[in-house]
Structures are given as C-alpha cells and as structure tokens.
Amino acid sequence: MTGAGAALHAEHAWTHAGWQHDVRVGAAADGRVRGRFALPGMVNLHSHAFQRAMAGLAERRGPGDDSFWTWREVMYRFAARINPDTLRAIATQLYVEMLKAGYTHVCEFHYLHHAPDGEPYADRAAMSKAIIEAARDAGIGLTLLPVLYMTGGFDGRPLSARQRRFGLSVDAYLRLLEALLALESPAVRVGIALHSLRAVPEGAMREVLAAPLAQGRPVHIHIAEQIGEVQDCLSLRHARPVQWLFGHADVDARWCLVHATHVDPAEMHALAKSGAVAGLCPTTEANLGDGLFPLANFLDAGGVLGIGSDSHISVSPVEELRWLEYGQRLASCHRNVAARKAGASVGEALWRAASRGGRQAAGVPGGSGVADWIVLDDAAPALAARDTSSVLDSFLFAGNVPLVRDVMAGGAWVVRDFRHRDEDRIASAYRAAVAQLAGA
Ligand code: NGQ
Ligand code: ZN
C-alpha cells in the first residue's frame, strides 16, 4: 500500500484480514478516487462469453417440457453463428458489464474453437485470441481456459454436427495450449479445462493432466449439473460423476468443479477435503433448472467455493451471491444460511468465500498486492447510515440499483462514476454484432 499519491483512498477497505481504515492503494497514475467503502474485486470463475448475446432468447416454451437439454439445442443453434469478430464484440461488451458490476477478473471456459462447419480456422487460436483481445480492450483480468471436448456422451459417441466446432484431439489441444501459453502476461493467465466427463474419455483426461504444459495450472471441469448425467455416469461408469472423478484423478486445490450440483454426502465431503473449488453459478443454475448445491454442509466441512455467471443470463456478483443464499433459504425454510456462526454477516461470509475461491480457481494470487478494487456509491440511499458491520449485507441484499461506482482492475481505473472508459464504442460494436447475428 502506498502513500499520498495513492490512486485509491478509502475510509474503509475490506481485506481478507477484515476491515482496514484510512487505506491508500496504488500510485495515482490515472487519477485518484476517494470513497467510504472499498472491496476487493470479485472473480467470475465461469464464463461462456458468446452466450451473453442469447440471454433472454430461450425463455419461450417449446413443444414439450423444456429442460437443460432443450435449452442446449437453442444454445447450439446460436453458437453456430458466432465467428471471431462477433465473439470479440460480444465478449468485450460482456467484460465491460462484468467490470461495472464488480467483477475484475474472469475465467473464460472456452470451447468454440473452430469455424461453424467444424473446420479449424487458418489460425487455430483465432477464437481464443478474440477472447484475449476482448479482455484487454475491456481491461478485465483473464484466465483463459481452452477446453478439451471430444465426445458427445458418456458412451463415447461422436460429436454431433453442431458440436464439431468444439472438437479437438489431445494433440491438437496441447498445441493450442502451447500457442496460448506464449500469450500469457500479468493480465492474461492460461489454465486447462475438460468440458465434462461426457465430453472427455478417461484416457484423454489422463494424457492432458499428465502433460508437462498442464502442470501447476488451474484445471476446470463441468460436473454433475444435471440428474440425467449422474444417471448416465452411474450406468456406464458405475459411479456418480464426482465420485468417479475422485477415483480417477488427483483432485486438489488446482481444480474447479463447476456446478457439482448433484453430490451425495460422501462426494460433498471429498470435494471439501480436497481443497478444490466448487464453482457455483446460481443464476444460470436457476435459469436452467439444475438443482441446488448443499451449501450449508459444504461450508461446515470447510469447502472452498466461488461464483460464475456462466451463461450470463445475469451479470452481477450481487445477484449470484444473493441467489446462492436465497436458494438455500427457499429450500430449507431457514434464514442466514451462508453465515455459519452466531453473529456472522451473510454478506461478508459470501463475499469473503467467493473472492478467495475465485482467486484460487483463476490461479491469481490475492493478498496485499491486490490491484483489483471496487468502490461503492457513497451517495446511494441503500447505503445511508451503513457502517463496516452492515455495508456488505446492504450491498448484497438491499435492492437492485447498481452500487458499484468505481472499479480498479489490474491497477488501472476502468470504471469511474459508473462509466466504463470505453463503454460507448464497445456497446456500438456489440449492437452491430448482435444485429448481424439476428440477420444471419
Ligand atoms: C456449456 N453450459 O458448455 O455451455 C454448458 C452447456 C453442456 C452449462 N452447463 C453444454 N451451463 O453442458 O453440454
Ligand atoms: Zn459452463
């Protein structure tokens, strides 16, 4: 923390050690912001950026009972129209929205590798580079997770026509990983991802996890989101998905198990004990009808969690954390679930857990060198007469007026007075891209 020329001067700044007072951070290279309450920026640990542009377009009932699987068909049809230019425009707008909402880093779980017909682009990293350019343009920290996707189901069936553009062999995957590692910088990290147990055969999983390039990096996987996949896994692999994964991989703190919705008590304890992050995406999980993660028992077992906006039906850490808590209240008929000790604040418990787990999942260090801050709106009525004991609860639970006024990401102010530094240009490019997709 630096002195008089600081970029941020907060009356109260919330750190992992608790609230600190009269805090000055960074050098004032691009101006100084003063505020009453500053919080560390949130990590969004799970994103499929292209899906932002279809948010709201799958809310009309189809001919039968709609489900995750019917939504996926709509999503596949939409994905089939995305190219590197539209991906860049959508992702840049999405990342601006994330910053304005209080996310300062995003883990992009990226599997749209090839052209719509399944043929690789001349530059096989063209789509990944569109993501990197988007993050740089918006000014958000990025952990790019190129995804291995090989099969259409647990039975090893080939990819469907619409899935072909996701497909990579292990060799092609490792070549892509190598190309992306060369693009790493302080703002861009690279991890690895297995789409799901449905999409990655056991042998391929082992090869990728054993590859020298993969060592020491975050490993993300979608798991046990839907009951149907638990049933398929049981019938073909004779174990539940999380149980199978723990039996076949060394799951440790490098891992992020995205969703992990349907876990039995033994799986939940194994996950908590492993130190892996449970990557919870409450608004998407609600939107897709996934189910509820056993939050209270997981927290009591010492489990690590983080949040993601996944399909981007909503882009707000406030909404993710609020619905994480509200889902539990609705299901259990109790209040204040995420706060596990008498006197504890739910808002603080949620923000602390999700920022710690998010950083772990993203592979970015936390601690005193943090250059990612959000400053809340001093003038907001919802925060009137709040102090350090109540501000996080009011921030997360009191209404829907945006309360994030300024955002510093990677040491630079990217949002000042509710405006992103380039939001008009980026929104126009986004509108043009979406108009083009609608006409495509
Ligand atoms: C995805 N999304 O990869 O975008 C997935 C749907 C799948 C979520 N699971 C596709 N929320 O899981 O096969
Ligand atoms: Zn996902």
Question: How would you portray this structure in words?
Answer:
With 440 residues, the protein is α/β, with parallel strands linked by helices. The protein has one domain: Metal-dependent hydrolases (TIM Barrel), CATH 3.20.20. Helix content is 37%, strand content 21%. The chain contains 14 helices and 16 strands. It has helices at 68-79, 84-101, 126-138, 170-181, 202-210, 227-237, 241-248, 265-274, 282-287, 295-300, 317-332, 346-362, 391-397, 423-439; strands at 6-15, 18-27, 33-40, 42-47, 103-110, 141-148, 188-190, 192-196, 219-223, 255-259, 277-280, 304-307, 373-376, 404-409, 412-416, 419-420. The strands form 2 sheets. Strands 4, 5, 6, 7, 8, 9, 10, 11 and 12 form a 9-stranded parallel beta sheet that branches. Strands 2-1-3-13-14-15-16 form a 7-stranded mixed beta sheet, with helices on one face. Strand 8 (192-196), helix 5 and strand 9 (219-223) form a beta-alpha-beta unit. Helix 2 (84-101) packs parallel to helix 3 (126-138), helix 2 packs across helix 14 (423-439) and helix 12 (346-362) packs across helix 13. The longest helix is centred in the first third of the chain and has 18 residues, at 84-101. The protein starts with 5 loop residues before the first strand and ends with a helix. The mean pLDDT is 96. Bound molecules: N-carbamimidoyl-L-glutamic acid and zinc ion. Zinc ion (ZN) binds at residues 46, 48, 109, 222, 258, 310.
